[in-house]
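Researcher: Please translate sequence to structure tokens.
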Amino acid sequence: MRIAIVLNTSWNIYNFRMGLIRSLLTQGHEIFAIAPEDEYSEKLIEAGCRYKRVTMDSRGANPIKDLGLTFELFNIYRKVRPDVILHFTVKPNIYGTFAARVLKIPTINNVCGLGTVFLNKGLISIIAKIMYRMAFRYPNKVLFQNHEDRDLFVNDKLIKEEKVDLVPGSGLDIYKFQPERTDIKKKFTFLLISRLIYDKGIVEYIDAIRILKRKGLNARFQILGAIDEEHKRGIPEKVIKSWIEEDLIEYHGRVRDVRNFIKNANCVVLPSYREGTPRTLLEAAGMAKPIVTTNVAGCSNVVSNNENGFLCKLKDAEDLADKMEKMFYLKESERITMGIRGRDKVEKLFDENIVIKKYNHLINLFDHKISA
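Model: Translation complete:
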């Protein structure tokens, strides 16, 4: 079969979907990776994909650009003629689905996360729901990464219940992300891994650090992730530099391999406002690290309070600081136990093979129809 995989970045495909792609290639399928060009586009070709470049701005809504994206995807799909298209992230899910519908190509969509547009009541939220309701009449199946997002779509009648299913995020390669011994005598380190946008709770993290430093807590506070000033919720670089100059954080930018940073951290923090199933928390749990995160959709799927981490209140820097302080003063043996529980949870619920099996099953249904 010809299978197209469409995302908002080549980086995203390479880092989060290669397990699925390798499985499909092994079965003899022809894979077309469709995404904007970046440094990972060539890696997709080297891995055995046929790469097709598309222009796509994932940072916001622009009706003219988005209409152009629909036509661009239509032209790519018309030339490639895939047997099935796998859409991920917001714009492929909506505009890719419209393009595929015109060409009568089956699609499987994956709602990777809703962001805060669904939390804010207003015109943007209304428009977003209208677009989803229009687009989601057409996919053969839509996969959600947590129960909350699935229920929201079904209850708001954005999609028919018979079209939905669940997957545990992008899944995790549990052999790549494994527990490693670290030096417990080193300075206690908190680590946050995320794009630097406000909706990830970055400011709450900074405010919590200020609270903890005033209390004299002797720890390191690190951030990994790309600066994205073009995003409408992106944090300006000058603000990040001011945090560094204030000696609040160690900022390491975006790195190719986060494992060494996770290995050397004592606790991973993510005070996000909403997630699908956050990959960074899966990676942290996979490496048996205790976690502090918000009690919101997606995050609470990975972390059970007092079991493999602590859940804090949404947009509450004081409560975040309280949970971080609590983690700091736990006995090392208790943090190790939390980490082991997190690893066990990932192995049972979030192994990427669960996701791969789900996709293989759905794709085989199309294959049988084509063969018949």
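Researcher: Any highlights?
Model: The first helix runs from residue 10 to 16.
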